[in-house]
Specification:
The chain has an 8-stranded parallel barrel with strand order 7-8-9-10-11-12-13-14, surrounded by 6 helices. The longest helix has 18 residues. The two termini are 16 Å apart. It contains 12 helices and 14 strands. With 348 residues, it is an alpha/beta fold. 34% of the residues lie in helices and 17% in strands. Helix 3 packs parallel to helix 4, helix 6 crosses helix 7 and helix 10 runs parallel beside helix 11. Bound molecules: phosphoenolpyruvate and manganese (II) ion.
């Protein structure tokens, strides 16, 4: 695949000239980004590189063998930083912990939990209003009312909010209310939903599919990037395996692996990844030691009464305790030398 970076001041004629040249040679082209410094993506291994490099408006070219050219480190070598909200970014050394209940259940539940996770040091509040439940008779979430309660919790705490979007129909009205769109594991291959959030002007937390390979996951991210939305955060949340002693098999090896393949920030969800409350702490620390840019943890003021996923949810005191350990660990990991050691180069 070839990515052609156009100059900031390039004209639409410059872009059309590049596309024309490629299309006359039978290549599909896709222009990504706005008028300023767009990128043109095309299949092929770069035979036209020399001619293209000489065309007006072309700043540079990058070739990659991977089917996710915009997500690839080969075309964007620097570790990416995703802006979440004013003063809050993730990636490139900025570690962010997101926490909150699996689902918004009531006003007092979300407000109390939000205040608790904020005091413990979380930087983003999670909470589902549209829940993708396996059983149609299980609690499906509060829907629009849940979003209104998340917005109220943001107002009360100042924490940006992340919540799952399940339908393209919800994109337009939901966008002004959320800070991060979550694409759940079950929807990682819902290509119309990926295209929809690709058009949005909000960051997207893209969970790894229940059975997705790394290649499939990064191609799902590519859908969002190709739509023009460059703010993608990847989330490892465990994959299905034969072993039922944990809900999923949390694949921490993908943290350094994906970070070597892609510039996108990677976070880990130890709640869904294990399905067991007592495993959240060791897996959180292991994820950060492996180089994760953050975590998303289920926390509830009273996990025993939670309407979903209570068994993989921490109470506020346990979350506070976890945050203290995280703080000691990240101080140790934050030296430049440690970061360099963690940034493995993995040949694929
Ligand atoms: C969630 O985070 O609420 C959720 C449903 O997660 P996943 O899509 O990873 O199962
Ligand atoms: Mn959950």
């Amino acid at each position: 695949m070839l990515v052609i970076q156009m100059e900031k001041q390039c004209s639409s004629l410059d872009v059309a000239r590049v596309c024309d040249l490629l299309e006359r040679r039978g290549r599909e082209t896709k222009v990504v980004g706005g008028r300023k410094a767009p990128r043109i993506v095309t299949a092929g291994n770069g035979e036209e590189q020399e001619i293209l490099a000489g065309l007006p408006g072309v700043e540079g070219l990058a070739v990659t063998k991977h089917p996710f050219p915009l997500a690839s480190r080969e075309t964007s070598p620097h570790e990416g930083v995703v802006d979440i909200a004013p003063g809050l970014a993730i990636g490139g050394g900025n570690m962010v912990v997101m926490a909150g209940p699996c689902a918004v259940e009531s006003r007092s539940q979300i407000l109390e939990t939000a205040r608790g996770v904020k005091a413990a040091g979380a930087k983003v509040l999670r909470g589902g209003a549209f829940k993708p439940r396996t059983n149609p008779y299980s609690f499906q979430g509060l829907g629009n009312e849940g979003i209104a309660l998340m917005v109220e919790a943001r107002e009360a705490t100042g924490l940006p909010i992340v919540t799952e979007i399940m339908s393209t129909e919800d994109l337009e009205w939901l966008e002004p209310h959320v800070d991060i769109f979550q694409i759940g594991s079950r929807n990682m291959m819902n290509f119309s939903l990926l295209k929809a959030v690709g058009r949005a002007d909000k960051p997207v937390l893209l969970k790894r599919g229940l059975m997705a390979t790394v290649d499939e996951w990064l191609q799902a991210a590519e859908y969002i990037l190709a739509g023009g939305n460059s703010r993608v955060i990847l989330c490892e949340r465990g994959i299905r395996s034969f072993d039922k002693s944990t809900r999923n098999t949390l694949d921490l090896s993908v943290v350094p692996l994906v970070k070597s393949l892609s510039h996108l920030p990677v976070i880990v969800d130890p709640s869904h990844g294990t399905g067991r409350r007592e495993l959240i702490r060791p897996m959180s620390l292991a994820a950060l030691a492996a180089g994760a840019d953050g975590l998303i943890v289920e926390v509830h003021r009273d996990p025993e009464t939670a309407l979903s996923d209570g068994f993989q949810t921490l109470d506020i005191a346990a979350f506070d305790d976890l945050m203290q350990s995280i703080s000691s660990l990240t101080q140790m990991l934050s030296t430049d030398e440690e970061r360099r050691k963690c940034a493995l180069k993995i040949a694929m």
